[in-house]
Specification:
Strand order of the largest sheet: 3-2-1-4-5-6
Structural class: alpha/beta
Number of strands: 6
Distance between the termini: 43 Å
Number of helices: 9
Helix content: 25-40%
């Protein structure tokens, strides 16, 4: 099985995340996308809701999709959610065809050299980079290829949705319909998330 990991804070998961995962499967980048919500993300604050809420929202967003699954691997380990440790554990747990693919946005990929054990991580995965900005210039990332990072850019149009904007809209009591899956929207309302 060709496996693609999609790790993130998912605070909350939104329709652009789903679109990226759908594109990966439809274009045979992988057979399955495994969403991995970070338990304690080292580079981000997970304010606004609990780690358990974020995990539950991801499960709700993908529950009817056979080509997607959710792993709570970082919740089992607890502590900081370091991608390198997670990838090592996934290799132990799954029979994988070739190398793991790793979905990542251009904003996060720009900071990849600051990640924990990045030199070991780049040997374990091939990055599939989705565009998170307008006027994208792929040449900006050439230096990472020279440093041994293997990656391809998704030819997927930039969809301007961000979790930060969604949290702000909820706080201002604005609609988030069409930005998140319906079950996620309902969960946010029922559990009064992102109000403060």
């Amino acid at each position: 099985m060709k496996l693609c990991l999609f790790q993130g804070t998912f605070n909350p998961i939104h329709n652009a995340h789903i679109q990226v995962a759908e594109f990966a499967v439809k274009n045979s980048i992988c057979d399955r996308v495994v969403f991995i919500p970070a338990y304690d993300p080292p580079h981000k604050s997970s304010g606004g809701c609990s780690a358990g809420d974020r995990l539950e929202m991801v499960k709700l967003a993908v529950q009817d999709r056979d080509e997607f699954s959710v792993s709570d691997i970082e919740f089992q380990r607890k502590g900081k959610s370091y991608t390198y440790l997670t990838v090592c554990e996934i290799y132990k747990r799954h029979l994988i065809d070739g190398k793991i693919k790793f979905l990542i946005g251009t904003d996060a990929f720009e900071k990849i050299e600051s990640w924990y054990e990045t030199d070991k991580l780049k040997e374990l995965v091939d990055f599939v980079v989705f565009i998170r900005e307008n006027n994208f210039n792929p040449a900006r990332f050439d230096y990472l290829r020279k440093k041994g990072y293997r990656f391809e850019f998704m030819p997927l149009e930039f969809l301007d949705i961000s979790s930060t904007d969604i949290r702000e809209k909820v706080k201002l009591q604005e609609s988030i319909q069409r930005l998140v899956p319906q079950k996620v929207e309902e969960y946010i309302k029922i559990n009064d998330l992102y109000k403060s």
